[in-house]
Amino acid sequence: MKKILVAMIGSFLIPLHCMKAQSLDSFLTIDSKAGFSTNTFLNPFLSEWDRTENSGYAMVSPIGQLFFSDGRFSMDVTGGFVFEPFFDDRDTWHGGLAVAEARYRVGRSVILGVETGGSYFSSFFTRQLFWMQPKLTWQPSLFTKVSFKAGSTFRDYENFREEDFDDRLDLYAVEFETWPALNWQIQGGIFGNFNTSLSDNLSSNISVRRVFSNSLRISLRVGADRFSNEIVTGGDGPGGPPFGGFPTETLTEETDVLFKTGAAVSYELFPAFSVTMNADHVSLFSTGTQTLSDVHLSAGVRYTLPISGIGGKREGAEPNWKLNGKQVLILKVDYKGSGILYLTGDFNDWEKPGIAMNRQKPGQYAASISPESGAYEYKILLVENGEERWIDFTADTFTVNDGFGGENGVIIIE
Amino acid sequence: MKKKKHKKLILSFLATLCLVTAAFTDASSQERGLTDLISQARSAGIEQADISRLQNRAAERGISDEQLVRILRPAVEMAEQNLPADIVFQKAFEGIAKGIPAGRMIPVLEGLRGHSVQAASVIDPWMQREEVKSFIAKEGKRTETGFRNEMIRAGVKSVSLENQTRRIEQLLNAIDNSSVLDKTTPASVLAAVNIMPDLPESARRGEVMSSLISKALGNGFNAEEMQKLPVAMNAAQRRSQLPAATVMEGVSNQLQGGIPAEQILQNLFNGNVSAGPPGNIPRGLENRPDRGRGNGRN
Question: Which residue of A has its CA nearest to B112?
C-alpha cells in the first residue's frame, strides 16, 4: 500500500510538472494542534471507534496542494503527512495521505469528475485505505451545488485488535452546499453503503457556517448516523459502531444511532496565520445495551503559504508600490537574478537606464519616486555585464499593452 | 574619337551634378520640413524642452530627420486639436528607450492621434457635466484639464486595442450620478477606464461592464484595488472553473452585498466566487484534516 501511495503521488506530480507552463497554483498548509478526546472516533485522521484510551494528543500535519487548470479541465492534488503523538503509552500515530480530484466542466451547470486517494497510517495498528469514485456535480446556481459520488474503498488493517483483515466498501454520497446569504453557508451530506440497505446504514451531517468578519468564522455542525450492524458482544472488544469494521468472535444484530454536534472557530491573526478551536460531542444510543457520550476538544494554529517554484510564484518581477508619506512612492520588486535593476517610465520620460533600484535583501529591490497625481506606465530594466534587458512582470501584475508587442506596468497616483 | 570622349565626360558630370543637387535639395527640404514642424509645434503650445529631448534621443538612435518629422507630426496635430500631445511624446520616448525601429514606431504614434480623437469625443462631453466638474473640484488635486488629459490617455488604450468608444461612453454614463461619484475619486475613475481592456471578454460587454465597474466604484474600490480587479477575476475563473459570466455574476453579487473591496479581491484570488471572506486554507483542504474523509475511510 505504501508503494501504491508513493506511486499515486508520483503519477500525479509527473504530469503536473509537465503542465507547468499552464495555470498552476500550489499551497502548503501546516496544521499544528493539541487536543483531548475520549474516543478516537472523534480524533482527527484516526476515526476508529475506541473508548478504551482517554488521552490528550498533539498533532503536526503539513499538507500541500497543487491546483492545475486548463480551460474546462482542472485538477487538485493534495498530499501530506501526519505526526500525532499521544500523551499516553501508545505509539505515535503517523502516516500520510494523498488525494486527487480531476474535473471537467461539461456545461454551465454540470461538472464531471473523479476523486481518488489513498492513505497509510500506523501506530498500535496499521491502516491502509485506497478509494476511487466518479463524481457528478450539478450547480443550479452560483450559490448552490449538489454532488453525487459513488465508488469503492479498499481497506487493509494489520494488528487491529491483534488481527489482520482487509475488505471493500462500496459507498455512495450525496452532498450539497448553498449560500443563502453572503455570510451564511450551509453544507450537508448523506452517506450510505451499497452493501446494506438505506435503513441499515446511513450517515448524514449538516453544518452551518456564519462568517462574522474577514477574519472570524464560526461553524456549527450537527449530524446523525444510523447503523444496523453486527457488533461485538463477546470477546474483549469495547463495543460500539463498527466504523473500522471490528474483527469479532461473537456477533449480535443491533441498531446504533449516533448524534453528532460540533463547533469550530477560526480566527485569522495575520494573513495566512490562523488560530483554530474545535469542539465535538457524540452520543451513541444503542438498542442493545447502552447510551454513551464522548467529547473532543482541540486548539491550534494553521499556517498557509503559497509554494515558490511550482507555480506559486510566477517568473518575473512582482512590483509592490507603497506610499511613504504623501509624496514618495516606494516600489519593491522581487527578483532573483544578478545585475542591476533600474526603474524607467513616464515619470522620467523613459530616460535609460533610469532610477537605480537598491538591493534591500537577496531577491528584493526598491526604488522611490515622487510623481504628481496621474497614471504612469513603467518598466524595469536589467543591466548585466553591459547588456540591457527589460524584465517581464508576473501574471498577477496589472499591465497594459505597450503598443509595441510588450507590456508595461501602470501605477495610478491618487 | 576625342570629341566623343569629352561628350561622355560632360554627360557624366551633369548626371552626377543632378544627383548631388537632388540629394541636397531633398535633405534641405527635410531639414526645412522639420524646422517648420518644430515651429508649428511651438505655436501649438508644445514645450521646446520636449522637442529638444526628442531630437537628441532621435539623433542618438540614428533616426533620420524624415522619420523624426513623422514621429513629431501626430503630436503637433494633437496639440492643434487641443488633445494631450504628451501621449505621443511619452510613447516616442518609450519606443526609443526600448529600441523599437522608427518604422514600427511611426504607425503606433499615428494611431494614437486617431484614437485620442475618438476617446476625446466621449470624454469631453462627460467632462462638461456639472456633477463631474464638482467631483474634480472636490478632490482638489487635479485641474479639469489635467484630469481630462489623463482620461483621454486611459481611454486611448481601450480604443486602440479594440474599438471601445461606445463602451467608454456607457461606463461614463453609468458613473456620472452622485451615488457613485460621492464614493469614489478621480484616480479610481481613471483606473476604471484603464482596466477596461483587461477585463474578461464577457465582462467587456457594454452594459455588464459598466454595471460592474460602477458598482465597484460605488463600493469604494480605490485605484490600486481597481487595477487588481481584472487579474483577480481571471484568477477566480481559473480557480473556480466557472464560466466568466458566472464569475461576473458572483462579483456583482458581492459588490451588491457591500463586501469590502479588499475582501472581494481576496475572495476572487482564492477562487471564491460565491461570497464569504477569504480563508487561509486552499480550496478543498478545509474539511479534510479535521473531519476525515467521511464514513468508512480515514
Answer: A403
Closest residue in A to B278 (Cα–Cα): A214
Choose from A350, A352, A378, A396 for mutation: most chain B CBs within 10 A: A350
Q: How far apart are CA A244 and CA A324, in angstroms?
A: 60
Q: pLDDT at position B106, please? A: 94
For domain A318-413, which CATH number applies: 2.60.40.10, 1.10.443.10, 3.90.1150.10, 1.10.1610.10?
Answer: 2.60.40.10
Q: Which of A93, A86, A94, A97 is nearest to A63 (CA)?
A: A97
Residue A203 touches partner B, C-beta closer than 8 Å? yes
Lowest mean pLDDT among A189-203, A225-239, B231-245: A225-239
Q: Which residues contact A59 (CB under 8 A, 6 or more apart)?
A: A31, A32, A33, A34, A35, A44, A45, A82, A83, A84, A300
Give the distance from CA A291 to its chain's centroid.
35
Report pLDDT digits (tens) over B184-193. Answer: 999 999 999 9
Q: Write out the three cell numbers for B293.
A: 474523509
Chain A CB contacts of B273 under 8 Å are: 142
Output A21 or A208, whichever has higher pLDDT.
A208
pLDDT of residue A358: 86
Asked if A168 reaches chain B (Cβ–Cβ under 8 Å), the answer is no
Interface contact flag, A264 B242, Cβ < 8 Å: no
Q: Where are the domains of chain A?
A: 2-306, 318-413
Geometric angle at alpha carbon A197, from A192 and A201, rounded to 5°: 45
DSSP-derived secondary structure letter, A393: B
What was the ipTM of the complex prediction?
A: 0.79
Beta bridge pairs of residue A35? A57, A298
For A96-124, letters b (16+ CB in 10 Å) and e give: bbbbbbbbebeeebebebbbbbbbbbbbe
Please provide the CATH number assigned to the domain covering A2-306: 2.40.160.40
Distance from CA of B134 to the nearest CA of A (A): 17
- Verify whether the Cβ–Cβ distance A398 to B231 is below 8 Å: yes
Residue A184 has pLDDT above 80, yes or no: no
Burial classification of residue A319, based on how many CB atoms lie within 10 Å of its CB (0-12 exposed, 13-18 middle, 19 or more buried): buried
Chain B nearest C-alpha distance from A401 (Å): 8
Band of the pLDDT at A21, cuts 50, 70, 90? Answer: very low
Q: What is the mean pLDDT of residues B49-74?
A: 93
SS (H, E, C) B237-282: HHHHCCCHHHHHHHHHHHHHCCCCHHHHHHHHHCCCCCCCCCCCCC
CA distance A305 to B282: 9
Report the pLDDT value the prediction gives residue A5, as an integer from 0 to 100.
52
**Cα A24 to Cα A17, A98, A119, A317, distances in angstroms:** 9, 18, 24, 18
Closest residue in A to B149 (Cα–Cα):
A374
pLDDT-based confidence at A275, cuts 50/70/90?
very high
Strand A126-141 with A318-324, pairing = unpaired
Kindly state whether A414 is in contact with chain B, defined as any CB-CB distance less than 8 angstroms: yes
Of the candidates A396, A186, A188, which has an alpha carbon nearest to the alpha carbon of residue B265? Answer: A396
d(CA A331, CA A355): 11
Considering only CB atoms, B93 lies closest to which of A349, A375, A401, namely A349
CB pairs A-B closer than 8 Å: 210
A21 touches chain B (CB under 8 A): no
Test mutation, A57, A172, A373, A389, chain B, max B CBs within 10 A? A373
Contacts of A217 (CB under 8 A, 6+ apart): A209, A210, A211, A265, A266, B276, B277, B279
Percent of chain A exceeding pLDDT 90 equals 14
Number of helices (H) and strands (E) in chain A: give both, helices first.
1, 24
Return the C-alpha cell found at A179.
Answer: 449560500
Mean pLDDT over A375-385 rounds to 90
